[in-house]
Amino acid sequence: xxxxxxxxxxxxxxxxxxxxxxxxxxxxYSPPYWYSRVIALYDRDxxxxxxxxxPDCDTFFERK
Length: 64
Ligand SMILES: [Zn+2]
What we know:
The protein is 0% helix and 33% strand. By secondary structure, the protein is an all-beta fold. The strands form two sheets. It has a three-stranded antiparallel β-sheet with strand order 3-4-5, with no helix packed on it. A hairpin with a 4-residue loop joins β3 (39-43) and β4.
């Protein structure tokens, strides 16, 4: 699951979506067009995102 597409944190309920992405930049993104506050955790060895972290409650979410 891509947690940047999730509006609210399942753990603390804070809203991750910050601001809507302006129309002129949307071709580089997929819907819904919102900037997310969630923190993506990146593994350099695997060259992939392995999880996400809530900026407010620090809960870790595994990317499945
Ligand atoms: Zn949270």
